[in-house]
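Figure caption, in words: inputs first, then the predicted bound structure.
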Amino acid sequence: MSRALVIAVDGPAAAGKGTLARRLADALGLPYLDTGLLYRAVGRRMLDAGLDPAAHPADEQARRVTPEDLKRGDLRVPEVDRAASLVAAQQAVRAILVDVQRDFARAAGGVLDGRDIGTVIFPDAQVKLFITASPAARARRRWEQLATDLHAPDREAQIARVEAELVARDAADAGRAVAPLKAAADAVVIDTDHLTAEQVLVEALRVVRAGALGTV
Ligand code: CDP
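Bound structure (cytidine-5'-diphosphate present):
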């Protein structure tokens, strides 16, 4: 019997991984997991407990993460971006979350997006995509996702701040000792700077068909 199809979608912050992974999962009828939410939930718990994620071990909070935590509406705020990246650099936290991610795709496969899906979590995934874009394009998209006023007079300054935060977080994610952000050697890199979400999906489906032929 052939293995369930696993598609790894990795890449830097706000590159469009989530949008692509959700659409791929819909198109292929696979379960979808946003693994960033796991780290965000741990970061959120640390902040709620009054613990500085830069100074305290977060494994205790990682063990307590529940499915309900992942549905919280306050996971995509700047302080949680930073807290998530800090707890994600802790080996003990990653060790706790490995099994959750592998178990998720065990029965029926899945599309998982994150930083280390193709390198650490599923090094034998049949399809590995690395989604990237320039910091400027990523900052504009993230700002548009979260902005409360699209016509704010200081919008360019706001976008520049988002860009600085993304670049700092990418540097931390790529520079850490455990499971750093990087493309797996066998990943297909898609630069989404000049592509619409629809075009990225078409390209990704082409890669899936080429790479996963015979496994679905
Ligand atoms: O949505 P965005 O790309 O901004 O971030 P995310 O995917 O929600 O991930 C938030 C943070 O969690 C990242 O900056 C990483 O530090 C961490 N993360 C990770 O280390 N490994 C993963 N598989 C997913 C996220």
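The first helix runs from residue 17 to 28.
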